[in-house]
């Protein structure tokens, strides 16, 4: 039950009579796409006599939607009802803590510079890629350890 | 928040591999059965099955590590030999080692195939085989790097918080995804002849 922060203590709401299970609407929106794409995929396979590219792509679109739907379903079983699940919920009841965010950070810029140099290397010469990879690695380490050192060390 | 982003990204990764599978099936349909039978006979099945088992088991050890992380058990409570007392770090280190063994096995398999005369340039079957399994291998290597970062930030942290636990969890999502993709690739390439 860690890390599934849907809100701080002040986000706790008493569910009303009309409250749906958590993440119900979201799960249905993505879940409904699964049978749709399977149906479309079967029709496509029959009509084209198994043309590989489209058949694989359409059937795996069902996988794409199913992956998100399964995650929402599994998460919905772990969390309490949110204000969003209540048709009578109010905007204020959704106030509170949403997660950990960086107030500002220069590391994504370093990371992007590394990626830019990396792709420049593909056009100019492969040795340039090495420089891009090193800059990117510095940016990645800086970004990921930003909240683990200095004044943020915990 | 981080989990949602990871899942959405993974679903787009699924479509990347959809392209890979499409390449493979198209080649199968175009190249004809002779090329197929000749090339697939050179695959070393017992070796590949062992390698696959290692990757699948690494998903199991990863999930046990996630359970430890979710209970905020950062490191082991007893001795290293007492497996039941292991924390997230021990399980993730084991998962990393198993993943590394898988990559080493893939490299060995590639070397064998090149030795047999199948390369990315001189055989169409080789092209699709190395493209599909190669991109999967790159994803595994990416996962190994992610494991290093998870372990690194966990070792740096004096107090194991939700920040570290979330990183462990989303890395496990990615690892399971890569594992499932491999199982699909394994059946398509090695069994669907």
Spell out the helices and strands of chain A N to C.
HHHHH
**The biggest beta sheet of chain B, please?**
none
Q: How large is the share of residues in beta strands of chain B?
A: under 5%
Give the proportion of residues in helices of chain B: over 70%
Number of separate helices of chain B: 6
Reading off the top of the CATH hierarchy, the class of chain B is best stated as: Mainly Alpha
Kindly estimate the percentage of residues of chain A that lie in beta strands according to DSSP.
under 5%
Cα gyration radius of chain A (Å):
23 Å
Spatial gap, N to C terminus of chain A: 21 Å
Structural class of chain A: mainly alpha
Mean pLDDT across the residues of chain B is 90
Which architecture name of chain B does CATH use?
Up-down Bundle
Give the name of the CATH superfamily of chain B.
Cytochrome c oxidase, subunit III, four-helix bundle
What helical percentage do the residues of chain A reach? 55-70%
Shape of chain B: elongated
Low-confidence blocks of residues of chain B: none
How many helices of chain A does DSSP assign? 5
Quickly list its features.
heterodimer; A: 154 residues; mainly alpha; 5 helices; 57% helix; 0% strand; B: 193 residues; Four Helix Bundle (Hemerythrin (Met), subunit A)
Describe the structure.
- The complex is a heterodimer of chains A (154) and B (193).
- With 154 residues, chain A is mainly alpha-helical.
- Chain A has helices spanning 24-31, 33-48, 52-78, 107-124, 126-144.
- The two termini of chain A are 21 Å apart.
- Mean pLDDT of chain A is 85; it is low at 1-10.
- In chain B, α4 (88-115) runs antiparallel to α5 (124-156).
- Chain B has helices spanning 2-31, 33-40, 45-70, 88-115, 124-156, 162-191.
- The longest helix of chain B is centred in the C-terminal third of the chain and has 33 residues, at 124-156.
- In chain B, 80% of the residues lie in helices and 0% in strands.
- The N and C termini of chain B lie far apart (42 Å).
- Chain B has a single domain (2-191), classed as Four Helix Bundle (Hemerythrin (Met), subunit A) (Up-down Bundle), CATH 1.20.120.
- By secondary structure, chain B is mostly helical.
- The model of chain B has no long low-confidence stretch (mean pLDDT 90).
- The chains are: A mainly alpha (154), B mainly alpha (193).
- Chains A and B meet through α3 of A and α1, α5 and α6 of B.
- Chain B: Its main location: membrane.
- Chain B: Its EC number is 7.1.1.9.
- Chain B: InterPro entries: Cyt_c/ubiquinol_Oxase_su3, Cyt_c_oxidase-like_su3, Cyt_c_oxidase_su3-like_sf, Cyt_c_oxidase_su3_a-hlx.
